[in-house]
Amino acid sequence: MYLLSIDPAAIDWARAQFALTAIYHWLFVPLTLGLGLIMAIMETKYYRTGDVFWRKTAQFWQRLFGINFAMGVATGIILEFEFGTNWSNYSWFVGDIFGAPLAIEGIVAFFMESTFVAVMYFGWEKVSKGFHLASTWLTGIGATISAWWILVANSWMQYPVGCEFNPDTMRNEMTSFLDVALSPYAVDKFCHTVTSAWVIGAVFVVAVSAWYLLKKREAEREMAQKSLRIGAIVGLIASVLAAITGDESAYKVAEVQPMKLAAMEALYNGGPDQSLTAVAWVNPFVQPDYQNEEEAPLRIAIPYGLSFLATRSLHGYVPGVNDILKGYTREDGMVEPSVQEKMERGRSAIETLAAYRQAKAEGADEATLSPLLSTLKEDFPYFGYGYIRDESELVPYIPINFWAFRVMVGLGTLFILFFAFILFLDWKKKDIASMNWLLIAAIILLPCAYICSESGWLVAEFGRQPWTIQDMLPVGASVSNIGSSAVATTFWLFLVLFTVLLAVEISIMLKQIKRGLNK
Amino acid sequence: MTYVFLQHYWCFVVALLGAILVFLLFVQGANSVAGSLGSTAEGRRLIYNSTGRKWELTFTTLVTFGGAFFASYPLFYSTSFGGAYWLWMLILFTFVLQAVSYEFQNKIGNFLGPKTFQFCLTLNGILGPLLLGGAVATFFEGSNFIVEKGNLVNSQIGMTPVISSWANASHGLDALLNPWVLVFGFAVFFLARTLGILYIMNNIDDEDIRSRGRSRLIGAAVPFVLLFVAYLVHLLLKDGFAYDPATGVIFMEPYKYLHNLLDMWYLLVLLLIGVVLVLYGIGKEMVNCKSSSCKYNGIWPAGIGTVLTVLALLLCSAWNNTAYYPSTADLQSSLTMQNSCSSEFTLRTMFYVSLLVPFVLAYIVYAWRALDKKKITREEINTSQHTY
Questions:
Q1: Would an 8 Å CB–CB cutoff place A509 in contact with chain B?
Q2: Residue of A nearest to B350 (CA)
Q3: How many structural domains are present in chain B?
Q4: Domain housing B179
Q5: What is the structure's pLDDT at A489?
Q6: In this structure, is residue B266 part of a structural domain?
Q7: Does any domain span residue B235?
Q8: In the predicted model, is pLDDT for residue A190 greater than 90?
Q9: Would you call A78 and B77 a contact, using CB atoms and an 8 Å cutoff?
Q10: How many C-beta neighbours within 10 Å does residue A253 have?
């Protein structure tokens, strides 16, 4: 009835804008989560010992926390509303499920965070020590609960569970809240994300402390040494936990998003006994010719590594990009159809739904509607494929996934070794303050931590393309009907705004660090 | 709990959040008048430090309002945000600026200077309430959108089967061409400013600021009352967007909102109590606070009155078989509680979650009281560990 003409560039701009805001947001959130934990530990020490040194130390880190926190809040609001402004079809199609975690996040987490952060800043002279300490912890806990619900929402997009399509309302509806809220994918994603955020907080504390020691700042020497130790302890525990949960995360990806794993590994043709690629040459700027190449050139691999990672068996079957496109038999014996077949069944689902709607509008009886509903139910798992024009759309951009995964894992491993080394030196009572090379390394690792963290985000989000909701709705069918010029304008506006604000934040942060313990 | 009850319940929760949000816009209202209330740099700093301890509550309420709307009425979220793109983007843009401005403005290293961020606070203080008020007015005045769920399976549409679209290229800015939307928008703006002045007079123990507040209160409260009364009269006399629950057909009904208030007498009572409380709060501050024994607590009756008034108006836009988000482009595309809400399962699940709200409110009140027991003074700003 209403012929719509959507500029395809609007889809790309909508993706670009969401990626921009998510990338910026993710610069600030991990530090909020990580520093939130560390400053709470420091204030706990003040509460228990009554030593004013710990109060000053906690207040110092809280000042830096505040500068970062504001930017996290500013970039976060855009993300929530962008689901509506830029992905309105998505918001309708799954709003029944996806809206709930966002609402719960607001009610349970945001209010906790925003109420107690004010007490944390302004309450030192106004509330008791215990209430203040509780407020500091609740600020961090509020941020962590917030992460929980947003990651539940994100995980549901990657692994949609606890829902059913309702042909009468033309949308997906929740059938089990617990399946959504406690999805194993969500639990793992939360643990991995939060522990990796603690790593960022730890690297930040260690780097800032290292700078004071490097500059021989006597006024901050004790604070730097003690902060460095706490940072390294938190960092080591968190980076080991991030590695464990990361491994579990990869296992889950293999289970529910095999194409993402194939892209992460640049695995064109899979099979049993697959080795894990350590390094290979994948041109970062060109999508490889996966249909004709056997494997990425100059590949060095760990035998059986990928099979073990993906199936927990050295000989497990891992599908490559071409296997997924052509169809394959999974490790559990289930046959996965070719994408051509999935696309046909997806179109069949759409057509059946159209026929059902028409029949219903014409007042058809149960006997007419029932077979349509069974066909729809049978084909609905491939509904999203009905909107795919070409099978190549189903292959994410391999170079980004491949390199981002390696950067994340490589740097993550480096952090474990680095924190372990610092704690080893500390245990041996070595004078870390005199080891300039180590202090410089600690400072250099700070940008690496952010690169590592953003790489993780790139793997998670680029790897699932073209799906907004895995197998259910591709980005092209999720977008709002807004011209590309409007979205392009807001994209540039936000790019300029966030970049300027980031520059201001870094400048303020550096000055604040230079000032040290002086307010 | 029936599905109908849950639809009404969630409408109430969303309306309550919206009403609390309008009250909390006192942060924006005070910032919009900060330059005049605080005549010196130190005076302005006092004001920013006062609103700076509450801005996150306003911000969080806005986000939760959006989240609750998304969870309970996803078709509204999809249609309004995805359609009135520019209107919402402008609102969000000013709130983004506000979020960093407090923390950044007076910090060393802020190479843009304090005035840049103070300007952002003023901008948000003016545009935030004005545009949010305008957006709320569209609940009564209508918007230019079309909803066609069949697009999802319409092969003619090809690869972009979007179900809701704005019917013109302005993407929401057209609402600001409607004079009644502007009247309501400015009413909310002046209300926020009135509440802001009342809040500052209550929260800051400073005679200079309080005496300026008293004189600025008239300049904010009088236009608010005039604009509000004008809109209320217009609302009661205008045709409203009604729907037939049996057929789902939407139609224009003369004096629909007047009928709604008469049919739902409890909303009328709520509205009247709210209006009286707002006027009492303002009047109390204007008349009584010329003596030195004044407690400057007009913000509380005015704030509670604001919540009750806005709650009554928002419920009047949706309950009693009314289309709460009417379409002027295609009447049958208008959104009602019934055609735009989430499934019964989701509403029921969220009902249990919403039982946490009193607990959340309790700790907010507790923390608020703990921080505001002692009024903010110039001395505190100069000695405190954390100031803006």
A1: yes
A2: A100
A3: 1
A4: 3-227+330-383
A5: 95
A6: no
A7: no
A8: yes
A9: no
A10: 24
